[in-house]
Specification:
Blueprint: E1 20-22, H1 28-33, H2 35-45, H3 60-68, E2 75-77, H4 85-97, E3 102-105, H5 116-134, E4 139-143, H6 147-150, E5 152-153, E6 156-157, H7 158-169, E7 174-178, H8 179-184, H9 189-196, E8 200-205, H10 227-233, E9 238-241, H11 250-263
Parallel strand pairs: 1-9, 2-3, 3-4, 4-7, 7-8, 8-9
Antiparallel strand pairs: 5-6
Length: 267
C-alpha cells in the first residue's frame, strides 16, 4: 500500500459545501479510463470532497489527482471486517497518510444478519478494527445495504441491533446510512435517521423508485425519496452523492444531483 499523503481540501467560494461529497464508485468507468481527468471533472463541478473505494482509494495516482485539485477524501470505503491486525494496521496507516479519518466497511453478506448473535459478532469485529484504527488517528464506520433492514430481530431491524450493540461496546464506531437502500429494505429513512441520532456521520444520497434494480436509480430530486427531509434528519452528516448504476449517464446524474442540493439550499 502506498503512503503518499493527500492534504486536506480547502473550500473556495465557488465550490460545493464541504458537507457534500461524491462516492467515486458512481463514476468508476470514467476513473478506470482516466483518473486525473475524472477528478478534474468533479473539481469543475465544485466538489471539495470525494469518497474513494477499493484499491484505487490507496493509489498514488488518485492521491496526486486529488492533491492537484485540493480535494479531500474524509471518508473511504474498504472491506475490513474480520481482517487480522496486520492487514488493519496497513489499511489504517495508508488511510491516515492520505488525510482520511473515517474508513467505512461497505458490505457484509446477508447471512451475517439473521440472528442477534450474528449481528453482535459483526459489532465485535468492528470494535476490534476500531481499536487498531485508533492507533493511527482513524475511526471506522459501517455502511448498510437493504438486507440489514429487511432482517428484523425481535421487532428491531438488524441494522438498529448493530447500532445498539455498538453504542454499548464501541461507541467510537460510526454509521454511514445509505438512505436509498434503507427504503429498498422497507424502512422509512427519515424515521431511521431520527432513531439513530449522532451515530450517523455520513449519508449516501441517491434517488429513484426505491427498487432493488440499481438501473432504476436517478439524479437527486427526480425520484421518490424525500431528500430534503432526509438531510434534515441528520443535518451534521456528510452528504455523499451516489448512484450504484442508472439507465442514464451517471456523471450527468451526479452533476444534476449536486445542482438539486444547491437549489434546495443543501449544498
Amino acid at each position: 500500500m502506498s503512503t503518499t499523503p493527500t492534504p486536506a481540501g480547502q473550500t473556495a467560494d465557488s465550490r460545493a459545501s464541504s458537507q457534500v461529497s461524491v462516492q467515486l464508485y458512481t463514476v468508476r468507468e470514467a476513473l478506470a479510463d482516466d483518473v486525473a481527468g475524472t477528478v478534474a471533472r468533479l473539481a469543475a463541478l465544485g466538489f471539495a470532497s470525494v469518497e474513494p473505494f477499493g484499491p484505487l482509494a490507496l493509489s498514488d495516482e488518485l492521491a496526486s489527482a486529488l492533491a492537484e485539485h485540493d480535494i479531500a477524501a474524509p471518508t473511504m470505503h474498504q472491506r475490513f471486517v474480520g481482517s487480522d491486525d496486520d492487514a488493519l494496521d496497513a489499511l489504517f496507516a495508508a488511510a491516515a497518510a492520505r488525510g482520511t479519518r473515517t474508513v467505512i466497511d461497505p458490505f457484509t453478506p446477508p447471512d451475517r444478519w439473521g440472528t442477534r448473535e450474528d449481528v453482535e459478532a459483526v459489532a465485535a469485529e468492528l470494535a476490534a478494527a476500531a481499536a487498531v484504527a485508533a492507533r493511527h488517528g482513524v475511526r471506522v464506520g459501517y455502511h448498510n445495504h437493504a438486507h440489514e433492514l429487511q432482517s428484523v430481530l425481535d421487532a428491531t431491524t438488524a441494522f438498529e441491533v448493530l447500532a445498539q450493540r455498538l453504542a454499548e461496546v464501541a461507541p467510537e464506531v460510526v454509521l454511514e446510512v445509505d438512505t436509498y437502500w434503507v427504503a429498498v429494505g422497507g424502512q422509512d429513512p427519515v424515521a431511521l435517521l431520527q432513531r439513530l441520532g449522532d451515530q450517523v456521520v455520513a449519508l449516501h444520497l441517491k434517488d429513484g423508485p426505491a427498487t432493488a434494480d440499481v438501473l432504476d436509480q436517478v439524479a437527486l430530486g427526480r425520484g421518490s425519496l424525500p431528500v430534503a427531509e432526509i438531510v434534515a434528519a441528520a443535518p451534521s452528516a456528510l452528504r455523499v452523492i451516489e448512484l450504484d448504476d442508472s439507465r442514464g449517464d451517471r456523471f450527468t446524474a451526479v452533476a444534476d444531483g449536486l445542482a438539486h442540493l444547491r437549489a434546495e439550499g443543501l449544498a
